[in-house]
Design brief:
- This protein is mostly helical and about 260 residues long.
- The protein has 2 domains: about 1-70, Orthogonal Bundle (Multidrug-efflux Transporter Regulator, Chain: A, Domain 2), CATH 1.10.1660; about 85-255, Hypothetical protein af1432 (Orthogonal Bundle), CATH 1.10.3210.10.
- The protein contains 12 helices and 4 strands; from the N terminus they run E-E-H-H-E-E-H-H-H-H-H-H-H-H-H-H.
- It has helices spanning about 15-20, 25-30, 50-70, 70-80, 90-110, 115-130, 150-155, 160-170, 175-180, 205-220, 230-240, 245-255; strands at about 5, 10, 40, 45-50.
- A hairpin with a 5-residue loop joins strand 3 (about 40) and strand 4 (about 45-50).
Length: about 260
């Protein structure tokens, strides 16, 4: 039940989350990022004015919806572009399914991290297009079960650079190009194509990397052995700070 002090309604973080249909962790991220002002009780608990909620999150939701509307054409174009995977046969159909899953996971994770409206919209579209470079890959090595040769592996890795080349050549997708090209970079510098480290990697690419890895691990259509949700979480946690951004992994695991 909300509290009323001097005519002002106050919410707990949990009540604020319910009011805007968001997760509690999202509200906490807003508080910790100082995007949402709070008062503290003598016991150290956060209390949020209703007026502050409406001014901050209400305005954000309106902007978010407007951002979504303004990027509808961009989203439509991305879906048309990714449909080019159909030329790859059954492997292409699996890539389309994977891309849509990665897009949704990336979008939801970016919201939990309290990223800006534009960042959320961009990572959603980047999720759809992150494997677009595979248009030039060989059908017989995509989603192949078992080991592949070093030469074929290098050909598969080239999809990150190819994706950047394709997207950078299209005016509407220039802002997506670097996000896509860096989704296989790693904080420890052992990723590709450039071997970037830590904060050198676009933070939207770091979100994309986790979303892509999770879907690859749990999806029944994956070229890898399918693991359970718990096994997938354990693997992501095991590889935090080396393959994945530690802070983003922490938020991702809490919100699954």
């Amino acid at each position: 039940m909300q509290k009323v002090y001097q005519g002002e309604i106050f919410f707990t973080p949990k009540q604020a989350a319910e009011y805007f249909n968001l997760s509690l962790s999202t509200i906490k991220n807003y508080i910790y990022a100082k995007k949402l002002k709070t008062l503290k009780t003598p016991g150290g608990h956060h209390r949020i004015r209703r007026s502050e909620l409406l001014a901050s999150l209400g305005e954000r939701e309106e902007k978010y919806n407007a951002q979504e509307d303004s990027m509808v054409s961009m989203g439509t174009c991305s879906n048309v572009l990714v449909n080019a995977f159909k030329a790859l046969g059954s492997a292409g159909e699996l890539l389309i399914l994977h891309s849509r899953n990665v897009s949704k996971i990336s979008h939801d994770l970016a919201r939990e991290l309290a990223f800006t409206d534009r960042e959320i919209a961009l990572v959603k579209i980047a999720g759809i297009l992150h494997d677009i470079g595979h248009i030039a890959s060989k059908k017989n090595i995509l989603y192949r079960k078992g080991a592949i040769s070093e030469r074929d592996y290098e050909l598969l890795k080239a999809h990150a650079s190819r994706g950047k080349e394709i997207l950078a050549a299209i005016e509407n997708f220039k802002d997506i190009a670097d996000i896509v090209s860096q989704h296989h970079e790693r904080p420890d510098g052992r990723g590709y194509p450039l071997g970037l480290k830590g904060d050198q990697i676009n933070r939207l690419s770091r979100v994309l990397s986790i979303a892509e890895a999770y879907d690859t691990i749990v999806a029944p259509y994956s070229y890898k052995k399918t693991l359970s949700r718990k096994e997938a979480i354990d693997e992501l946690i095991h590889n935090r700070a080396t393959q994945f951004d530690s802070e983003i992994i922490e938020v991702f695991v809490k919100t699954l």
